[in-house]
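During the reporting period the student researcher (J.K.) took over the structure-prediction task from the postdoctoral fellow and processed the backlog of single-chain submissions. One of the processed entries is reproduced below for the supervisory committee.
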Amino acid sequence: MTSRPIDLRSDTVTRPDERMRRAMYEAEVGDDWYGDDPTVNRLQDRCAELTGKEAAVYVPTGTLANEIALHVFVRPGHLVVAPAGSHVSGTEVSTAAMLSGIAFVELDAPRGQPSAELVAEALRPDPYDVAAVDLVSLENTHNWAGGTVMAVDELHGVGKACEEAGVGLYLDGARIFNASVASGTPVHEYAAETDALMFCLSKGLGAPIGSVLCGDAEFIREARRAKILFGGAWRQAGVLAAAGLVALEDGPNRLQEDHANARRLADGIAEATPGSLDPSAVETNIVYVDTASVGVDPWEARDRLKDQGVLCSVLGGRVRMLTHRDVTAGDVEETIRRWAAAMSGAGSG
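J.K. obtained the following structure tokens:
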């Protein structure tokens, strides 16, 4: 039995390994505001290469990457079409309104992944010429839907609908490498269907901080300008970019392990508390549990688990747990045991 807390709150809680720490210590740096930090430039070039895009820009957070993209693509007072529960239209909705004066049309789509037909319907011109959509934003994997994966052919269909409507397609690919591993589709094939995309280095890939926004050269030129205007410029960021380069090299090769651990966690929880989740719905590294189905409020369940030494989060009225590089198969078995102990007696009486 491990004495340390098992932290399943997010895949952002990982700590840099020794290889990352060494790379950070040895990083050659400059001033990224001036564009002369060689390690940042190397990271950006590598990300552009991996995604097949012309250029990339390194920023502190995925939210900043998304908001820069929305600001560049969407005019104030215009709309973005996005799946219900997506990060841009949920967590970031006030940010987008404040920074760029834009609003959202949410699509209620199975698994958080809208079909081309659903998107095409949302892009039909307003007969009164008032509502104007400038962008479709998708999320792959879709967090709130449970880490669901959009297949590249489905993305292609949405892209065709956007092209026919003269509207851009943006991909919030915070966990696109998870989608790539789960689907067997290279990241550049997903990226090819979009006008721009971002991904996080600090989620499944395990870097301590940072996200990257990728697109064509003109888009990234404007994105760099917005990054500075939004206060996202940083100086000797190569110290962090060095860890990002290691994450890109090492991280994708072990994501399947996270996915297998998540599925085992789901199977164990389903066995301990029948009806609380469907393990077959777990596609990547995210597990949602409906504790109300076993008579426990999700916040109470979170506190019970914390008392047992397991950290989780609550989103959308469900307990959320994510596997990551700092969670071993043994930790998963221990979590299942502690879950059973925490939920003991739930629903009785």
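The committee noted the following: The chain has two domains: 6-13+254-342, 18-250.
J.K. will present the remaining backlog at the next meeting.
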